[in-house]
Batch of 2 targets.
Target 1
Amino acid sequence: MLNRYFDSSASCPVSGESIALMQSLYQDWYCNPFSPHGLGKKSFELLTKARQTIAKITGAPMQSIYFSSGATESINILLQGYMRFLNSINSDRNEILISSTEHLAVHNTALSLKQNGWNIKFINVDENGLISPEKISEQISEKTAIVCVIAVNNEVGTIQPIEAIAKKVKEKDPEIFFLTDSVQAMGKTVKSFDLRFVDAFMLSGHKIGAPKGSCCFYLNPAIRIHPITFGGGQESGYRPGTTDPVLATVLADVFSKSVDNLDKNFQHLSKLNLFFDQALSKRGVQFQRIVDQAFASPYICAMIFPEIKGNLLIKMLSDRGFYISGGSACSSSCGTKSRVLEALGKNNQDMMGAVRLSFAPFHKGEDIEELALAIAECIEKTKTKTNADATKTLILQENVS
Ligand code: PLP
């Protein structure tokens, strides 16, 4: 079934190796890492080791890595926490700039700042979803407190030139807090960012093959935030609540392996993308890539099939045991129009035929071939049905007249 699962950008399967690691660790490390006894202390050491591993790979100081339950929570802690800090010092800054293609985790958190009197400005993207580093400084004002740009877009796969963008932002105003939602990038297209310019990023376990609920974020130690939830003071008080050393260890392990295989996986998936286009063309399937492959993550393949509605294709493929998605899993299940596709200038007709396929390192050429064949068959079936319906209507009309 795994070879027909094309939705790893929503959630990546947890590998057998990680399940085995988790199972063995939970046998010994069931206790609270903050308990005062020997077992607690050992458990705390395990947590520290996981933090060290992630810090070493990303080049961040260990104390700047905070464990949390997910990227959405991390983004809320960072953005709302920074707003609270600025409020506490009566700062005049109350403007947030976000790209028009952010995931809802950033988009809706930014909107929540509006309720506190903040202004929100959107940074436009071009037809490939790209932001121009040169243009971004034009939108910054003396009121700008935060700039957020998604590193790899979850819906269309655009890879932003994050470091060039962050550098321009800092050149314009070094006081600005620059955050990147790096969930679809970490361990896939990058292992970290230039921490001279990027102040915050996050790593969500379920996007790379660790369990849901495992996540961490980096925050520049020079930046202060106020907590948004209150409790026992764990994770420096930014994310109070008992931290799980086992989840943290599995996250660090999976991240470490992803980084070791980053280049190899990137090349493998780039080849699969090319192969997919060829396999579709060979079968006469009409398609359009939403983002030019040169600017997209090979993990995310966003396509428009003009001959079939996206939702229908998702259902027909699902009935055959192939799992793909439309837009991001969250917005497509709500059935709303895609903000992201609109930002790229796509019209309603295009949006109807849009789907997102996620390729993963475990996929092989034959899986892609099977997928292309299944898509071709689904399209053919709808064409045959449309022709049959048209013939029926014609016969009915002839009988009436
Ligand atoms: N940001 C991006 C780009 C995502 O793809 C997702 C996952 O859907 C999130 C944020 C939210 O991540 P999490 O599920 O860890 O809260």
Target 2
Amino acid sequence: MQNYEMLIDGRWAPAADGQVFQSDNPFTGKPWAVIPRAGLQDVDRAIEAAWAAFRAPAWRGLTASARGLLLYRLADLIEAEADRLAAVETRDNGKLINEMRGQLRYLPQWYRYFGGLADKVEGRVIPIDKPGVFNFTREEPLGVIAVITPWNSPLMLAAWKLAPALAAGNTVVWKPSEYSSASALELGPLFEKAGFPPGVVNIVTGFGSDIGDRLVTHPKVAKVAFTGGDATGEAVYRAAAKHIKPVTLELGGKSANIVFEDCVLDDAVNGVVSGIFAASGQTCIAGSRALVQRSIYDSFVEKLVALSKTARMGDPSADTTQVGPITTQPQYRKILEYIDIARGEGATAVLGGAAATRPECGDGWFVEPTIFVGVKPDMRIAQEEVFGPVLAVIPFDTEDEAIEIANSTQFGLAAGAWTQNIGRALRLSEKLEAGTVWINTYRAVSYLSPFGGYKRSGIGRESGLTAIKEYLQEKSVWIDAQGAPSNPFVMR
Ligand code: NAD
């Protein structure tokens, strides 16, 4: 068992009341790490530390270029440790080592990109319509940001928030998921090594039910940056509203992957498989609905099942494994419940449809890659996020019908389409109600391109130039250079 401590105000410490919890390895089904279970006292201490650090000259007095340099150093340190951190993530959340290694090797780019942006944040001089008055704007940090992240891509999703928040000059209290805290605690020392002053980044571990509300509602927290499920996101939004706090919410999805008869069939089959079975479907952008044009429906489904059948399940730390376990036991049970719901609604599983009991799955929490046909767009299996390897296949006849079905859920995180017709690609890019639209590709993200949800999939954008704005507020400054007397009883 590995024992961890939390990072508060530059010091590593257990929870004030000594509480801990165990983190399980989803492949073995056994605990492997002991994590501090923070209570309200710990959260308060972390927020106070971040609040003091926000005001201290060691952070506030840094030039934006110097702040950027810290982010560059952090990026280099992560790069050097990427494979070790990836192995910790795989042990903790059961996602494939190939996937986690790829994420960890890529994520320094977020720290570099926003590090580079730190000293390019500029105010404006406004050609104000009042003679003798000079008006300009300042872009200022907000203060303490509460960063709350889920278990599926722990360090990657944290980087999407930490990098712009710190580049903009804020300080942070970060609560990783109770199912994947270890990698956050392994990352902690790198902030210190990079030279961030104590209290600028605090990491508290524990349960949303114990400390989530305090993190969101504490008066010294200026903003909440959250990634997680839509129900939790709604609770966070409500709690933040009581204090008129801004939020960034990256929530769930029910993304459509639309296959037209004019696609390159093998590419589309590959894309649909990658959309739903990569990461065992545990991604917010999972293409969990395949909409398939009726003229190619039978041949497409046949090829889809044939390819999906070949997926190698097993130990996520083996390079050859393609489908790993489900990260948490509650999630595992939820996926199996959705499989029952789909059957109850009249859908038919043409592949999988059960827990996986293959010998190579050991004692892990595995679900067979599952494909449902006979799905109607209004069924729960086609409307609700499962967050597992379960695909609903729905036929359509025309482009308009495909768009209508794709847009018919309350979510709007992403959508994919497979077509050789450029006109259609352009029409879809306009008409699909989703924050990301992929044509002839799927599951591509970059630090350069904005990411976020339409509708119930969220508020705000991460990555790309505009993301730093989520962590800044604009101040308008007026200087009267003329000093002319004016009537105090009317607006100037
Ligand atoms: P979750 O909502 O259960 O938990 C997310 C985080 O919120 C955890 O750290 C949890 O401890 C915390 N939390 C729980 N209750 C809270 C409360 N009342 N107040 C404050 N914080 C609280 O989500 P999860 O199961 O860890 O992750 C899976 C979900 O995340 C899926 O729905 C998925 O779609 C979503 N997700 C979205 C994106 C995106 O960018 N849009 C990316 C990845 C995952």
